[in-house]
Amino acid sequence: MGTSTLAEQNKQSRRLSIILATCCLSLFVVGVDVTIVNIALPSIQRSFDASTTGLQWTIDAYTVVLASLLMLSGSLADRLGRRRVFQTGLALFTLGSLLCSLAPGLGWLVAFRMLQAVGGSMLNPVALAIIANTFTDPAKRARAMGVWGSVFGISLAVGPVLGGVLVSTIGWRAIFWVNVPVGLAAIALTHRFVPESRAPRPRRLDPIAQILIVVLLAGVTAGTIEGPQQGWTSPLIIGCYAAAAVAAVAVTMVERRRREPLIDPRFFASAPFSGAALIAVAAFAALAGFLFLNTLYLQSARGYSAIEAGLLLLPMAAAIGVTARLSGRLVGAGRARWSLVIAGVAITAAAAVLVTVSATAPIAELIVVYVVFGIGFGFVNPPISNTAVSGMPPAQSGVAASIASTCRQVGATLGVAVIGSMVAGHEVAGFTAASHGGWAIVCGCGLAVLLVGLASTSGWARTTAQRTRDKLIAEPEEGAVHGRDSAAVS
Fold first, then answer.
1. At CA 264, angle to CA 260 and CA 265, rounded to 5?
2. pTM reported for the whole predicted model
3. Apex 279 CA angle, 20 and 257, nearest 5
């Protein structure tokens, strides 16, 4: 009997390990995609004779769609089944990757990147929900989350080197091929091992707010990317920003009238939550801007090959992986403020050096700067989710974490759009000087992480979090109290 029980326990342990590995595969391909596409940008530019604006769209078409659909995908998974939505996301991401590798022109590549993003929105948040639902023991769940976090660091380290090797030996189209076998394997493993699960009471869908968020993000991104080329006072650019402004006002009004809003405005009364949202935007804008500028700087301005540029970025990725674990321990010990201070100082210091970078800067100096930047980003990511849910009732913590994840993607989108616009239209000879303004923006993002981090972890901030928590617990359905629309579309 004892032998049988032990065998069952081992079988269950192997099953849990396979489920965790399957979920981590999705994180791995999405994490690799963050850096591998950046490494290939100069090659894509030469292949399609693309402008800097076109390269911006190659990155931002993906992040805009991803940011817009993250919360919707989470709601659909709770309602339709997490395994079903996860498999659908894997299939769409894999198909999108294959189509990207076959794109006959830049416009097609951008369109297929958007399809990739639709699938990507169904991966990481749903995978986290699967892990939380599968690992019911708190200690095992904590270890699973630790593995999850380390895989992201590994993916960032693998991306630049793998991308450099593929671009240098086969060509940029090969960077999308790697997703196909991994995606197919994950689909098969999910079908075989991952149990289906749904939320006991899924949140109602909010299609109006969803559409308005897409208009808001697309309007700001399009206006910022196309501004240098079209002219900042052109009707198209003014129209983009006007549409975004109207959508921002409208989504606030719509969400205040719903019982179960996609984004609950009451959350922002909590200073830790609002601070986490701002830090997520600033930190990921800094990372996305850093990768975009640095890739073009190394390959276009300095003439390094893709594989050489990838190897130069490896110390940064390694620093992220190491310091993320240290930051997680600090956050677990209740010292999130320390992590945010270290992050803000390191990102600011690294970007400050690059504000005056030249095309002949010593490589040793650049590597030190990359390591310092990696330390900063490694320390900033773990506190974001923790600070976002700080003081939130358990029933709202998942929604708060989803909003924080969305803010990460919004930051990445704005980072490429705003910082890329600083160098748009500049030829190779003038790129390095034009990039100084972009590095100044990255420096400002680091200062924002530092200052907002200090404010959002203060005693005053904790007081606002407690007030918000008490209000959310006392008025879980405030919409009903104020006569708000409860007939949401299901």
1. 140
2. 0.81
3. 90
Q: What was the pLDDT predicted at 359?
A: 85
Domain boundaries in the chain? 13-198, 207-257, 266-490
pLDDT digits (tens, 9 = 90+) for 249-278: 998 888 777 777 777 777 888 888 888 889
In b/e form, how buried is each residue of 451-478, taking b as 16+ CB within 10 angstroms? bbbeebbeeebbebbeebbeebeeeeeb
Spatial neighbors of 12 by CB under 8 A, at least 6 apart, are: none
The CATH code that applies to domain 13-198 is 1.20.1250.20
Closest CA to 397 of 386, 408, 406, 389: 389
d(CA 229, CA 135): 51
13-198 and 266-490: identical CATH topology = yes
- For 264, phi then psi, to 5°, come to -80, 115
Of 226, 294, 285, give the one whose Cα is nearest residue 415.
285
Percent of the chain scored above 70 by pLDDT?
88
As a whole number of Å, the end-to-end CA separation of the chain is 49
* DSSP character at residue 200: S
Short-list 28, 128, 25, 112, CA closest to 73: 128
Largest pairwise CA distance in the chain: 79
| Whole-number pLDDT of residue 100 | 95
Query: Which residue from 405, 382, 280, 376 is spatially nearest to 327, judged by alpha carbons?
Result: 382
* Per-residue b or e along 146-167, where b marks 16 or more CB atoms closer than 10 Å to that residue's CB: eebbebbbbbbbbbbbbbbbbb
173 CA to centre of own chain:
23
Crossing angle of helices 394-423/428-456, nearest 10°? 150
What's the fold here for domain 266-490?
A: Growth Hormone; Chain: A; (1.20.1250)
